[in-house]
């Protein structure tokens, strides 16, 4: 799960007892050596899917962390690229590790629930951030995304099919969420990081209620489950209006 360069158990304990912001400030130098970082395979598959419907102009990586999604945007955007996160530590590491090739990158420290932008982006991506938002926060979060998209702009993010009940992965995620709930019941400020709190169906409904047109695209690199459903999908939520049409075939 963790490479030798990753955080030790004591470091993880200190981070988990902090606020989300401070915890990720502490984790930032070693974040890329943890399983919390989106795998390169998912980033690469997302890049290829976006290439088939690009290029785009201005791109935003929502909750950019150490900048893994920035590399995706720089390959599919011909204009400006921006990373936004509320962790100063994450943004510092992202700046240090940014590659020199491609469009210039702007880094902004801000809360995703109060984005300091107008409708200036053609593409917004996000990787692995939704576990830091409670279900009741989704409407406000998606309203913010809608507000920064130009007409025809897209909000794109990958989703992995949930593990089957009874599987080892299912048990591990269930146990992790239970530990976090106990921690947040006895200590403040809370550390919001839940793997099972935000459900895919809820996200789709809230995106639609926000006014975005939601379509799904299977990422064929990851194959299908026994029931025939894709293991990994790309959610493409488009703000209606003039501009590009939604990307790719729909695979629900």
TrEMBL record:
PANTHER family: METHYLTRANSFERASE, UBIQUINONE BIOSYNTHESIS O-METHYLTRANSFERASE, MITOCHONDRIAL. It comes from Streptomyces griseoflavus Tu4000. It holds the Pfam family Methyltransf_25. Keywords: Methyltransferase, S-adenosyl-L-methionine, Transferase. This is Methyltransferase. Gene3D superfamilies: Vaccinia Virus protein VP39 (3.40.50.150). Residues 60-153 form the Methyltransferase domain. CDD domains: AdoMet_MTases (cd02440). The keyword Transferase applies. GO terms for biological process: methylation. One of its GO terms (molecular function) is methyltransferase activity.
């Amino acid at each position: 799960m963790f490479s030798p360069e990753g955080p030790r158990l004591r470091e993880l304990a200190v981070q988990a007892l902090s606020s989300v912001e401070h915890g990720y400030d502490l984790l930032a130098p070693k974040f890329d050596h943890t399983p919390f970082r989106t795998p390169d395979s998912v980033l690469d598959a997302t890049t290829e899917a976006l290439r088939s419907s690009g290029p785009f102009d201005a791109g935003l990586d929502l909750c950019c962390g150490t900048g893994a999604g920035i590399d995706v945007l720089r390959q599919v955007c011909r204009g400006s690229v921006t990373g936004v996160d509320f962790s100063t530590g994450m943004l510092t590491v992202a700046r240090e590790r940014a590659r020199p090739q491609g469009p210039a990158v702007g880094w902004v420290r801000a809360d995703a629930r109060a984005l300091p932008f107008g409708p200036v982006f053609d593409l917004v991506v996000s990787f692995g951030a939704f576990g830091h938002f409670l279900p009741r926060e989704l409407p406000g979060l998606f309203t913010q995304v809608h507000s920064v998209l130009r007409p025809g702009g897209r909000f794109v993010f990958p989703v992995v099919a949930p593990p089957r009940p009874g599987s080892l992965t299912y048990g591990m995620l269930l146990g992790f969420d239970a530990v976090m709930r106990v921690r947040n019941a006895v200590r403040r400020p809370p550390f919001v990081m839940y793997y099972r709190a935000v459900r895919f169906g809820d996200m789709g409904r809230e995106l639609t209620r926000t006014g975005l047109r939601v379509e799904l695209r299977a990422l064929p690199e990851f194959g299908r489950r026994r029931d025939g459903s894709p293991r990994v999908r790309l959610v493409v939520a488009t703000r209606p209006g003039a501009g590009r049409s939604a990307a790719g075939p729909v695979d629900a």
